[in-house]
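Before drawing any conclusions, I needed to go through one protein's amino acid sequence and its backbone structure tokens, quoted below without any editing.
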Amino acid sequence: MTNLSDNIFREYDIRGVFGTDLTEETAELIGRGYAVFVEKKIGGTARKGRLRVSIGRDVRLSSEVIRDALIKGLTESGIDCIDIGECPTPLQYFSMNTLDVDGGFMITGSHNPPEYNGFKISVGKETIHGSGIQDLKNVIRESVLGKPFTVAAELGTVDRVEIIASYIEDVSARFLLPHLEKPIKVVLDAGNGTAGPVAPALLGNLGCDVVELYCDPDGNFPNHHPDPTVAENLTALIDTVKREGADFGVAYDGDADRIGVVDEKGGIIWGDKLMVIYARSILEERPGATIVGEVKCSKTMYDEI
């Protein structure tokens, strides 16, 4: 019997060390459990009861194997899968708003070391977290784990959809940079993660002069740990910004849903300061707008806003 570790079911995602507490068997069980969980939560759809999900993955060496096992669990439960391939987490969320799907999975270890992997899971257009993740765990334990499994009479289908180009087009259309005598020069450190095939093309599309750093995807993360919120991981970015005379630099984590930013002198602009900058811009256009913070935000940020 497959052992299902309680430790991998976290507050915001499922996460563990591949081959230890997260295996191919675990991924398949999660696929089967999701089918039961979603059917209880939202029931059938306009597709006569057939559910459809989009599945993205990061560059980790275990991500393809996990994807295959997850898809097996889903399709044998009668769920159609749209594989959007290797992409940043924000593109997986984008897919749920642009494709005809009922939920989704992002296979990623986020900013953790290479041996980690996991899932960010959505039902409808919302990610499940907290009690939702615990409910999914309980469904797997009560309805799937150790229980006889009957493959669906009609297997789910698997389609491959390329989404990066449409994402770049969509985001580019939302931003109009002012005309400048010379383009903004920015260094992008993708940390060998999923940002590499997306961020340089996007900023180049916006007219920026982009200097690429570690933009080749490599699940070993050979140059530095993929967490840009740690100062020591920004050393190469800082050095490159200074050497290139860039206006600023941006570093991404492994699945490109968190950033680190440095100014033209190589000084780190931490998240609280970035939030204040964003808020000022928003409040100029929309006085009284609601700005949402979270547990790691400082009192200084709230006071400034």
